[in-house]
Amino acid sequence: MFANSLGLQNALGSKFSAKVEEKTAQIKSVLSPYLHGKRKEANESHTVVSNKLFKRYTFAVAVLFLIGSFTPLSLSAEGYYNNTATNVDASMFATSLLADNDGYLTKINPQTNDGDRSNMNDMYVHTVKPGETLSTIANGYGVKTNTVMWANNLSNANSIKAGQEIAVPPVDGVAHKVAKGENLEKIAQKYSVEAESIRKQNKLLASVVEGENIFIPGAKPIVPEPRVVQSRSVSSSRVAVGTPVALAGSTDAPTVGKIFIRPTRGIITQGYKRGHYALDIADASKPPVWAAGSGSVIKASSGTWGGGYGNHVIIDHGNGMQTLYAHLDYLDVSVGDNVSQGAVIGRMGRTGRVYGRTGIHLHFEVRKNGVKQNPAAYY
Question: Which option is the CATH number for 267-377: 3.40.50.300, 2.70.70.10, 3.40.50.1970, 2.40.50.140?
Fold first, then answer.
């Protein structure tokens, strides 16, 4: 490389010298009759004076010609200098490659200008730094915040802490564990994506096998369909199961600084106070009840008095946090189910100990390390 640089310098130096010699020869040819003439003029009183003025005029013109000949030189497209200024088109520096976060070059998708990650299935492991938010982390890896939340089973984007390690998928989508009897086509249909995109993303050379973990690009978590939970006969006339109807999940996100969402629609008829460590939210139309945060169902009691709770669900969110949903008309979840924030877990009802002005309502509790908290402080 150094030798090439010297060669280029020598070549440019030779061309510059040739240019100087060319201009010098032109000037000499113009001035030679006047600078080197020694003859005496016939009419000294007039001719000598005229020649002196003419010489001075010619010399001035020659100097200006010389100065104008050496304008700043520019490099041509072929790598040589010429006298024509060149405007550089920035597009010549455009590249078809993009550096990823590890410094490796990946091809750019011409439609999105994003790196082509369609055959990547390894998760990045990111250690949260002080001041980082989930959205800035996700943006740094080119994925959506929800994608990172789903990959780490997070119910709140504001719950991460410095030093925490989180998994970041290579593209937007969700992870899936192949169940018994599933194949690639069934999985693709389940998530409404193309089977080929799953095959390419996971570099699958053959069919999937039971227990295998794969990544579904462009997919979202599947909210369980409403399921009828049959009621058992009990002594209380207040324990009943209504007719299941199609219920929509919630797309709400927690407010800044909170970890849960409001678990249903309605008005608060009874607040958190001594002797009532919960919120009662009432709506006579029996709206859906949503998981306030992502977690695992550790209790799903249906058709029982339930200590006054009637049909109720308890979800464990990790880190000592649990939520309870009581007096449900019916349940849509079972013990062991993993639910995402906003997923339907049942319908508001009036099972269990229900009386007075509260009527049809949801009894909602938040527990931290077994201690009941004011739910309003968490959503």
Answer: 2.70.70.10
